[in-house]
Amino acid sequence: MSSHDLSSSPAPARSSCRSCWLAAPGLLWMGLFFLAPLALVFAISFASRGTYGGIVWELTSANYLDLWHPLYGKILGQSLWYATLTTAICFVLGFPLAYVIARSPARWQPVLLLLVMLPFWTNFLVRTYAWMILLRQDGLANSLLIALGVVDAPLELLYTPTAVVIGLVYGYLPFMVLPLYVAVERLDPLLVEAAWDLYASRWAVFTRVVIPLTMPGIVGGSVLVFIPSLGSFITPDLLGGARSMMIGNLIQHEYLVVRDWPLGSAVSFVLMAIVMAAVALYYRHAARTTGPLEGR
Amino acid sequence: MATSSTPPFTVSGLSLSSTPPTIDIRGIVRRHGAVTAVDRVSFQVRRGEFFSILGPSGAGKTSVLRMLAGFEDPDEGDLLIDGRSMFGVPPNRRPVNLVFQSYALFPHLTVLENVAFGLKMRRVSPTLIEEQVRQALTMVKLLGKEGRMPNQLSGGEQQRVALARALVNKPAVVLLDEPLAALDQQLRQAMQVELKSIQEQAGLTCVCVTHHQEEAMMMSDRIAVMHQGRMWQVGSPREVYERPCSLFVSRFLGVSNELPGTIGPWVGEDRVFRPTDADQMPLTVRTVSTEPAGRSATLSLRPEQIHMAQERPSTSDPVLAGRIEKVLFAGSDTKYLVRVGRDRFWETRMVSGTSLPSFAAGDPVFLYWSRADARLFFE
C-alpha cells in the first residue's frame, strides 16, 4: 500500500509540465492560422504594389511613409474618436444595467444576462441592416420623434457619424455589461452601506468605493469595447456615409477596391500598434488606481 | 404565542435625570412583507451607556440596528437621537456609526485611509484628520500599521480598524453588529475586555446587537432581550439573569432547570408547588405571586442555585430526588446532568478541585435549594 502511494505521487514540478502537451493543438492552431498569416501580412506591408494589384517583392518602406498623408491621419483620428465615444457611452449605459442585474434576485440574474446576450443569436450583418431600416428618413426612429413632437421634420440620421456611434454602441454594449456585471456581483454590498454610514453622499459612495472596487471590470469592459470598435468596418460601412470612414473601412478599401495589399497591410499594422499601445497604457493606469489589491 | 398578545414586559434602570436620552425609540414597527420583524419596540439609551440587544437569530434585533443606522425606516413609531427625530434622515446625515459584523473595511484603502474616510467625507481639515486618526489608532493599539491594507491584517486587527473607523468620528452612538462574532474564542474574550475599556475610556454610547448571552452580560450596562420582534425585558445583566420575567428570557440567558406543576395554597410566606410528575413530593416556593391555587406553573432554577447531597438533607427547603446521568468535566467546573423525572434532566455545577464529595454517573442524589431562589412562571 505504502509503496504504491510512493510510486503514484510524482514530483510537483514534473506534473505541472507533464500536462503541457495538452496545449499543443491550440498552440499549433494559433501558430498556423494566426501567427503565420500575421507574419505574411507584415512581410507584405514592406512589399510594393504591382501595376494590376499584385504583390511585387521589392523591399520598401514607402507604404508606411505614405501613411503620413493627412487624409489617413484624419481617418485614424476619426476612428479613435468614434471608438472612445462608443466606449464612454457603453460605460454610461452599461454600468447601471450591470448594477441592476448583479443586485437583482439570484434566480433572475441568468435570465437578465441571457437577455443582454440575446442579440448575438442573430447575425451581426442582419442586425445592422435592421438599424438601417430604423434610422431611415421614413424609419421608425424618425416616425417616433415626429409623433412625440420632438422634431417637425425627419432628421437625417442614417449615413451620419451619429448612426455609426449608435450602431457601435448597440453592437458592443454586451461586451461592456458582462465584465461589469462580474465586478459588481463581487462587490460586497456592505461596503456601499459602510461608506454611506460614514457620511459619504451617494455620489461619493459611487466614486470612492464602487468605481475603485469595480475597476477590473471597467478596464476589461472598456478594452473589449474599444478594440473591436476601433477596427470595425461593417457598421461604418452600412450606417455611416462617405464622411464617416473608419480605419477598418480603409483597410478593406485598400485590399478589395484599390487592390493595394501592401498599403492595406501597413495600415493594419499601424492599427495593431496603436491598439496595443492604448491597451498597455490603460492597464498600467488601471493597476495604479486600483492599488496593490486588484493590481495585475 | 397565541396565548398572550403582549409579552410580559418590564423596564428598569431608566435614569430620572432631565437630560434627554441619547436614543429614544418609541413604539417602532418594521414589517418585511407579511412578517413583522420589529413589533412595537420602545427603549431609551443614556449617554455613555453600553446597551445590548440580545436575542436569537431572527428576533428582529438587526432590524432595530439598521433602523438606528438609517438603512431602513420604521413603518410605525419614531426614533430619536439626541432629541431629534431620525425619520427619513439618510445614514450619511445621522450622528451614528456602525461597526459591521464582517467589518466591511474598504479593501482598496489602507488602514489610515479607512479610518480617515468618515472625517474626509465631512470635509474635516487634513491636519485635524491626521491628529484624530492618530488618536483613534492609539486607542485601538494599531499605531504603526497605518500603511497596511486590510487583507494584510489579522482578524483581531481588522476588528480594531472597524472600531477605530467608527469612533474617530465621535458619533453620538456607536452601533455594533455582533462585533466579536467573527473572532475565535480566545481573541473574543480578550476583545470583550478591551472593547469595554475603550468604550468607558472614550465615553462612547454603544448599542450592541448580539446573540451571545455571556458577551452581552459581561459588556453591557443594560440588556434588552428580544424575541419574535418584541422586546421581552430590559434591565441590568444581573436583573435579567436573576429575575427573568418569562420562561423564554430565563432559558435564553443561561441554563434553566425546569419543573412543571401547579401552584397550591399559602403556607405562611410560602406556597405549595405540586410537580406534575406523580413521583415527586410537593415543594415549597417563596413567591409574591397572587395567582389562584390550581394554576399551572413552571418552576425554574439556575444550575448554581442548586446544591447536591448523597444523603437526603435535613432541611425545610425544597428537596428533589434524582440520579446522576452524566458527569461533564469542563475544567474550572464540573457539570452534572441529573435525571429528576422520566424525561427530565437538570444541570448542576460544582467548582472543580474542592474537597466536596465527588459524584459518579448512576449515583442517586438529592438536589436542594433555597426556597427564595426558585422562580415561578405562569403560562
Task: Outline the structure in words.
- The complex is a heterodimer of chains A (296) and B (379).
- Chain A has 296 residues and is an all-alpha fold.
- Chain A has a single domain, classed as MetI-like (MetI-like fold), CATH 1.10.3720.
- In chain A, 74% of the residues lie in helices and 1% in strands.
- Chain A is built from 15 helices and two strands.
- Chain A has a two-stranded antiparallel sheet with strand order 1-2.
- The longest helix of chain A is centred in the N-terminal third of the chain and has 34 residues.
- Chain A is globular, with a radius of gyration of 25 Å.
- The N terminus and C terminus of chain A are likely disordered.
- With 379 residues, chain B is of the alpha+beta class.
- Chain B has two domains: 235 residues, Rossmann fold (3-Layer(aba) Sandwich), CATH 3.40.50.300; 124 residues, Beta Barrel (OB fold (Dihydrolipoamide Acetyltransferase, E2P)).
- In chain B, helix 2 packs parallel to helix 4 and helix 3 packs across helix 4.
- The termini of chain B are close together.
- The chains are: A mainly alpha (296), B alpha+beta (379).
- Chains A and B meet through helix 10, helix 11 and helix 15 of A and strand 7 and helix 2 of B.
